[in-house]
Design brief:
2 domains; 71% helix; 378 residues; mainly alpha
Length: 378
Amino acid sequence: MTTATAETLRTKRKKLKSGDFVLTALMMGLVVFGVIMVFSASYYTALSKTGNPYQYLIRDSIWAVAGTITFLTATMVDYRLYQRLAYPAAAIALILLLLIFTPLGQDSHGAVRWLKVGPITLMPGEITKVCAIAFVARFLSDHPKRIKSLVKGVLPVCIVMMFYVVLILLQPNMSTAITVAGIICGMMFVAGLDWIWIGALGGLGAAGCWILLHMEGAEYRLQRYISFLDPFADPLGAGYQVVQSILAMGSGGLTGVGLGKSIQKTLYLPEPQNDFIFAIIGEELGFIGCLILMMVYLVLVWRCCHICLNAPDMFSMLLASGITIMLAVQVLLNIAVVTSCMPPTGIILPFVSYGGNALIIFMGAMGVMLNISRHSAV
């Protein structure tokens, strides 16, 4: 073996061991920040509901530990294993979505989005996101030219997407359905889908949203859309949550009122630790705090894109692309909803919002990204 060859092998081994440190540091920073903000945002809600102001803090901390274990495990598992498990995982996701409509489905706030099995609560919609990513990555990477064929490539993926989206909409959970559709369409674009089909899918999506807003029994969705156009027209009804969110953001000003000093979290803004936690961040840490948080997300997405561009093969590239799209779409949608830039819909802020399923899944997804980066040549 020549000296140059030995040096090359040593370099590859070194890179396999190191991975992307920036991605790891940013993710862990967001998780720690999330635990702090969940405690701050949920203090009064937890005190009112359970009598224990630390209830959400304890649970979120446990989930953060579980997420860290999942992250470390995913980091050590070779990403190629997911290629073999992709099709079974897609089937499992479909079964879990169907189980929602059995007695195992748990009703909460007028929607059945959870499965309750003893002490364990699963959210099939969150699990479907990563299963759909693995499926599309496997399907399109097995035959790279498949995406150029309507019958052999585009249509099968769209049929799977339709099954997932319809079952999620029946829960009802429009935000997760939009996210799943966005992830799959984004992955097809990355795989080389022609622009004409992207336009067609966009048109079908817009038509579907219009139908959902105007179909019989969809008055609630239509009211939420109207409230987005002018939330102050019905500040105590359909526009209540958005109005309270805007008040929180506006009250924070440039530097915020101070950590833990939010007024809107004192039972004005409903569920401030969940979908609207960004509003509490804006109130307590101000515009500067929000800007720093968005910059952290931007850098994290950039590191994910870097991993995608340097992935060792097409499957890992598509897998990383799906995870990156999932992260970017959810950050954009959450901030857009909180700032009243789009109709209100329930979607969490990755790594920061309260919720065990989403936190564990996102941290596990970052573990997959880190594993892919360890196999990268750059």
